[in-house]
TrEMBL record:
Keywords: Elongation factor, Protein biosynthesis. Transmembrane segments: none annotated. This is Translation elongation factor Ts. The keyword Isomerase does not apply. Residues 145-166 are annotated as: Disordered. SUPFAM superfamilies: UBA-like (SSF46934). Residues 46-121 form the DUF4342 domain. Pfam families: DUF4342. GO terms for molecular function: translation elongation factor activity. It comes from Maledivibacter halophilus.
């Protein structure tokens, strides 16, 4: 089928297509300009959907990779050398995000009951949370002791001052 350069130009102007795309569309639609425009628009929409689908798949693949890596990294709760609980880091993080007070209460209860909390990284390194928390607990206990002795000294001084007044 023959068509004119004006027809190609009109399809190009209305769709933003290249000369080759406009020519192909006119060939596919037997020179019908309106059908060629519709043909190009539908192909453009398919391309957009495919690009979005491809980007979506890339994002999903990255998320799967992150979750897989997170599932390799584990949180172990051990008592007397035995594993009481084994949680993938991903599940622990989701739980902590969904309900932080429960996560904090669970950690405190586990540590208070004499359990050891360890994180096993995918490279084999073990991070012992108890060691980290013990340092913090000793620091807090030291500060509480200091405050208690200051408070005691202040009370004793006030008692002495009251005795002098009487």
């Amino acid at each position: 089928m023959e068509f004119t350069l004006e027809q190609v130009d009109e399809v190009r102007e209305r769709t933003g297509a290249s000369y080759g795309e406009a020519k192909k569309a006119l060939e596919e639609t037997d020179g019908d300009v309106l059908e060629a425009i519709i043909y190009i628009e539908s192909n453009q929409q398919k391309k957009i959907k495919n690009n979005i689908g491809d980007k979506g798949n890339e994002v999903i693949d990255k998320l799967k990779e992150i979750v897989k890596k997170g599932n390799v990294t584990k949180i172990y709760l051990r008592k007397n050398g035995e594993t009481v609980m084994n949680i993938p880091v991903t599940a622990g993080a989701i739980g902590a995000l969904v309900f932080p007070p429960a996560a904090i209460a669970g950690i405190v209860a586990a540590l208070a009951s004499g359990c050891r909390l360890e994180i096993l990284k995918d490279d084999g390194e073990i991070i012992d949370i108890n060691d980290i928390t013990e340092d913090a607990i000793h620091s807090v206990k030291g500060k509480v002791g200091e405050a208690r002795s200051k408070f005691s000294r202040k009370n004793r001084k006030e008692e002495v001052d009251e005795d002098e007044i009487e």
